[in-house]
Specification:
- The protein is of the alpha+beta class.
- Helix content is about 25%, strand content about 25%.
- The chain folds into 2 domains: about 1-70 and about 170-340, Zn peptidases (Aminopeptidase, 3-Layer(aba) Sandwich); about 70-160, Peptidase M42, domain 2 (Elongation Factor Tu (Ef-tu), domain 3), CATH 2.40.30.
- It has an 8-stranded mixed sheet with strand order 1-2-12-3-13-16-14-15, with helices on both faces.
- The two termini are about 40 Å apart.
Length: about 350
């Protein structure tokens, strides 16, 4: 799990995925025939298929997991050296109080998110829900030092170490570094595919699926599979119709979300393989949100798309939690599909 630890602890907001990109390039290079990056910063690794058809006639299978994480950029530095921030992606402001952060200035700087102390709040202020604009970052440095090391636009990410909790692990950025991890490990396990395999570590998903949309327009895949997290609302105060998925019940087949509907024939193939290989799985329907599959689907020809999901508690917080057996089930099922996609005729 060392690779997963490195991925989830690393900093890389949308548009500034540089460190993550270097790590995934190092991991993918030995596994593929070609590797390139594009102007969006996507990593596109290509493994030629074993099918008998000439290269121009083999099907194209695109896998996509996004490298970026939700975070912030510095938007203002006040006269005392405190930083104000602009969000990139959707943090719930309620989860931000008293969190540790890393400001990626000229050097990485540790900081804390501060707010007005409760002791001096008015009764009206105590009833108010905090917004991003109510927070600031304290670097513990004098104004002159802050000005020397930090500029407007510098990235800010949450600071967390991966921890084991029973059969689970928790950290920031499981969304979607655990998807990147599963994708890389599935390619490693499958070794080969009859289709030409395009393995994409995408950028800027959290701000509108931008990287995957750009990559798919160049690849023009026949099939597109996003590997991402889904909500596991199997916690007190949720459950029932809001549950979506459960930790420990296996990998999750994403049937639809706010930005795409999975191709039913493609879903059926994944179910067939899961039952054949005895891989534990569940199904999820997400009422909102989206994955890279929504961007891939817009490529020319409208490829068949699907999302393979890892159930995750506390999504878009600093303590996102996944179950290790679910992670392995995701790797196993994706590897099985890479190796045995069937005829890949998903026309409806």
């Amino acid at each position: 799990m060392e690779l997963l630890r490195q991925l989830v602890e690393m900093s890389g907001i949308a548009g500034r995925e540089d460190r993550v990109r270097k790590l995934v390039i190092d991991q993918l290079k030995p596994l593929v025939d070609e590797l390139r990056t594009d102007q969006m910063g996507n990593v596109i690794a290509i493994k030629r298929g074993t099918g008998k058809a000439p290269a121009s006639g083999r099907k194209k299978m695109m896998l996509s997991a996004h490298m970026d994480e939700i975070g912030f950029v510095v938007s203002y530095i006040d006269d005392k050296g405190f930083l104000r921030i602009q969000p990139l992606g959707g943090f719930d402001p309620r989860t931000l109080m008293a969190q540790r952060v890393t400001v990626m200035g000229k050097v990485d700087l540790p900081g804390v998110i501060g707010s007005k102390p409760v002791h001096i709040l008015t009764e009206e202020e105590k009833k108010k829900h905090l917004d991003i604009k109510d927070y600031f970052i304290d670097l513990g440095l004098p104004k002159a030092k802050v000005d020397e090391l930090v500029q407007i636009g510098d990235p800010v990410t949450m600071h967390r170490k991966m921890e084991a909790l029973g059969d689970n692990v928790t950290c920031k950025t499981m969304d979607d570094r655990v998807g990147v991890y599963c994708m890389i490990e599935a390619v490693r396990k499958a070794k080969k595919s009859p289709a030409d395999l395009y393995v994409v570590c995408s950028t800027q998903e959290e701000v509108g699926l931008r990287g995957a949309t750009a990559a798919a327009s160049g690849i023009e895949p026949d099939v597109g599979i996003a590997i991402d997290v889904t909500l596991a609302n199997d916690v007190p105060g949720a459950g029932g119709a809001d549950e979506i998925s459960r930790l420990g019940d296996g990998t999750s087949l994403g049937l639809l979300n706010g930005l795409h509907i999975s191709n039913p024939k493609l879903v059926a193939r994944f179910i067939e393989l899961a039952e054949k290989k005895k891989i534990l799985y569940q199904r999820d329907v997400m009422p909102k949100g989206g994955t890279d599959a929504g961007g891939i689907q817009k490529a020319r020809g409208g490829p068949a798309v699907f999302t393979l999901s890892i159930p995750c508690r506390y999504v878009h917080t600093t303590v996102e939690m996944v179950n290790l057996a679910d992670v392995q089930a995701t790797i196993d099922l994706l590897a099985a599909y890479i190796a045995e996609p069937g005829d890949m005729d998903y026309s409806l």
